[in-house]
């Protein structure tokens, strides 16, 4: 169970009592924190510190800024070009491209690999995010060899949201994320698929054009006006009434 | 992260690759002139001492990564150097292009607007005279007017000087660089020039103080704060509103003496304003440009096949028309768009007039007499 | 090579109303020499002398405001004795043309032997030389610079210092010139089948030798001719011309006529626009207007402009066909190679 509290600025000391201590599991540092050997943990961004005692993890929740890739993030990238054995993929504007090997898709050989043109979208996992090297992506799990939903995205529309909302959307527990727009819209009978990239891009597809636009507008409004659950209900109600 | 840091990282990555390519210097054509490694004059370039230390770190990192995964490094060496590491605007993806086009054929815009609907337009003024900020959806533009007394141009002794300066700085997006005008910037400044300056909105003769010797130079600086499409319309409203809001110091001429009074001595005077032109931009979509949209957002602008900007004032006078290329659009549709623009211009014009009036009311504290009053405000 | 004066074949249904009127005036005037000085039937019934005075007065007032509009135009003479008021009586313009006549249009292609395509075009006294090089492979620097617009064409305009009345130092950063280059590039880009040439560039260099109005239109026409000469596949000619209106921007000026193909003198005094259309259609590639004009005048001006573009297209087409036929005659090209020509050439082969 995640606990919130404690607003920190970069370089602030975090009270050691706040850092979870699990007898067996190693401490996991999430985004926004940096381990300075031997034993101090300093925030590198300003935001709220969250902890999860069960997972023995601690991270800083912040909204905004540029997307900084970290390993295992699932992102939506845009193919820029293909050269050698890699695709060059844009995952954040004005950042250098990430590389996606041609063979990093489920069950492909050199002959059967997907042919992606510049401008195509892929849903990929960050395999390597080293500060001084190009980010590497993959669309297949290296352990199981399965795609697990990763791969090229066909049709649909991409909406840009803040990094905070993207992170909240990909949380498994709704009570933590406080984003209920998608559930409300789904309950209202709209048919759509959603793919959330941690780099602030949300892909919506699978339904009619009007529904896709409606879901996108609901999401961007929630994001821009920073709506709570009650306000989200109002947004959805208003948009649905416009639809009819 | 700061821009400097980002640039250093980019440079550093390139440097790493340079080292990985068995120390052979990269081909000259492949390194941009902005590369700090080659361009020491660049403001962000590290000093030579710093570059040496970077060199050392570079080698250390090469070694460390070599030790960790030698095969990874080999694969790295095969990656060709990108031609130039210029910051690039994220272009719109094929999925988005396709979606926007299909949506338009179904009469849907991605932000739920009608085809002929503007985004909400808001206008605010600063504390000072002559500062206006316009928000059109997420597009934000600030215009600031300043005036100084100078010598008029020799060939135009009876006219004051009036210029509009546009700047698209890296504040909007890193793709814009200072002092290197992009196509967007040139077109924006030309459109503003034609709409406001050439159409004679400001009476430049009234800026003359002493023929051939002294005149006012009025300058409007247009700063784009954020770009979400339709810069022209927003910038035009900002420029016109700022100029109409501006007050220049009052002056008097006696013989060869020009006296410029401070605001305390004499009430500053507004510029002599003749008419207020506003731009309305249409974008066209479809094979033959048969669909016309008003006030396209940045995403929509990237898909448009042609655009058409017409500047009008509220009296129905066209001040400027610009359809600078793009797909050929039927002449009748262009006329229809112009007719639609006249309606839109009336609306914008009313909005600006109303805001100016509100601001004037807010500032009006009963004139000079109220300020000079000796007694305090009575408590009732 | 004056275009035949014909009643305008107006494609815009709503413009029929006004197009009927000038035609009538025109037939009236051609009755005899004397009738040139007769008042048109639509003019108000007043004695000619007072009418002239009124109009001249109006003209004076109009020009004083117009002066401020055109204040920064480079070659502005302080006292411009263009008396537009005489137009309403004689229905003849300063250079003796009628309202819907083009100036002499003379054009040549293949003037520069060292280039892939070239042309020389005169519209009245406006003289433009165009050289096309390409398609060639895009340089790396060009590829990055224009990566977003991925433009096939690269247009350069240089205006000779001696081209206009006042000698002007050519400036590299003239925004007006770069806007014209942008307009030509963006318009031709859509007419050229760009998909055939991926990763290539075609450079179009335009040199202005002499300026006498309709500059942008001449640039368009010269560039089109040179592209045809270079054998670049295009969907049709992009032709352009200017059209103006005899009215000032005063709303009450009902007797105003649209004018075709303005010279420099007229451009400085009257509102005008430049129209470029694709082929003989009513579809407008580029429309540029830099002067103040009543919105109601626009329709007439646009219709005349579009019609003028059609006339220009016929003239340019004739130039190309004549040259093509000559080249086949001389054996400069093998029969079967089609040089910008259509059916006529094909039938000759048979």
Automatic annotation (TrEMBL), chain A:
Keyword Iron included in the entry's annotation: no
Any GO BP annotation: nuclear polyadenylation-dependent rRNA catabolic process
Residue span(s) of domain K Homology: 156-209
GO molecular function, one term: RNA binding
Keywords for this protein: Cytoplasm, Exonuclease, Exosome, Hydrolase, Nuclease, Nucleus, RNA-binding, rRNA processing
UniProt-annotated location(s): Cytoplasm; Nucleus, Nucleolus
Domain of life assignment: Eukaryota
SUPFAM superfamilies per UniProt: Eukaryotic type KH-domain (KH-domain type I), Nucleic acid-binding proteins
Gene3D superfamilies, sorted: 2.40.50.100, K Homology domain, type 1 (3.30.1370.10), Nucleic acid-binding proteins (2.40.50.140)
Protein name per UniProt: Ribosomal RNA-processing protein 40
Taxonomic source organism: Zalerion maritima
UniProtKB/TrEMBL annotation, chain B:
One Gene Ontology molecular-function label: mRNA 3'-UTR AU-rich region binding
Keyword Nucleus: yes
Transmembrane annotation, as ranges: none
InterPro entries attached to this UniProt entry: ExoRNase_PH_dom1, ExoRNase_PH_dom2, ExoRNase_PH_dom2_sf, Exosome_comp_Rrp42_subfam, PNPase/RNase_PH_dom_sf, Ribosomal_Su5_D2-typ_SF, Rrp45
BP terms from Gene Ontology: exonucleolytic trimming to generate mature 3'-end of 5.8S rRNA from tricistronic rRNA transcript (SSU-rRNA, 5.8S rRNA, LSU-rRNA); nuclear mRNA surveillance; nuclear polyadenylation-dependent rRNA catabolic process; rRNA catabolic process; TRAMP-dependent tRNA surveillance pathway; U1 snRNA 3'-end processing; U4 snRNA 3'-end processing; U5 snRNA 3'-end processing
Compositional bias segments (type: Basic and acidic residues): 32-42
Stretches assigned to the Exoribonuclease phosphorolytic domain: 117-249, 276-337
Subcellular location(s) of the protein: Cytoplasm; Nucleus, Nucleolus
Entry GO CC: cytoplasmic exosome (RNase complex); nuclear exosome (RNase complex); nucleolus
Keywords per UniProt: Cytoplasm, Exosome, Nucleus, RNA-binding, rRNA processing
Protein's UniProt keywords contain Transmembrane helix: no
UniProt main location, coarse: cytoplasm
Span of the signal peptide: none
Annotated region described as Disordered, given as residue ranges: 26-51, 358-380
Family designation: Belongs to the RNase PH family.
Name assigned to this protein: Exosome complex component RRP45
Automatic annotation (TrEMBL), chain C:
GO CC terms in record: cytoplasmic exosome (RNase complex); nuclear exosome (RNase complex); nucleolus
Molecular function per GO: RNA binding
GO biological process, one term: poly(A)-dependent snoRNA 3'-end processing
Keywords of this entry: Cytoplasm, Exosome
Subcellular localization, as worded in the UniProt entry: Cytoplasm; Nucleus, Nucleolus
Major localization class: cytoplasm
Domain Exoribonuclease phosphorolytic: 101-233
Family: Belongs to the RNase PH family.
Complex and partners: Component of the RNA exosome complex. Specifically part of the catalytically inactive RNA exosome core complex (Exo-9) which may associate with the catalytic subunits RRP6 and DIS3 in cytoplasmic- and nuclear-specific RNA exosome complex forms. Exo-9 is formed by a hexameric base ring of RNase PH domain-containing subunits and a cap ring consisting of CSL4, RRP4 and RRP40.
PANTHER family found in the cross-reference section: EXOSOME COMPLEX COMPONENT, EXOSOME COMPLEX COMPONENT RRP41
Name the record gives this protein: Ribosomal RNA-processing protein 41
Organism of this sequence: Zalerion maritima
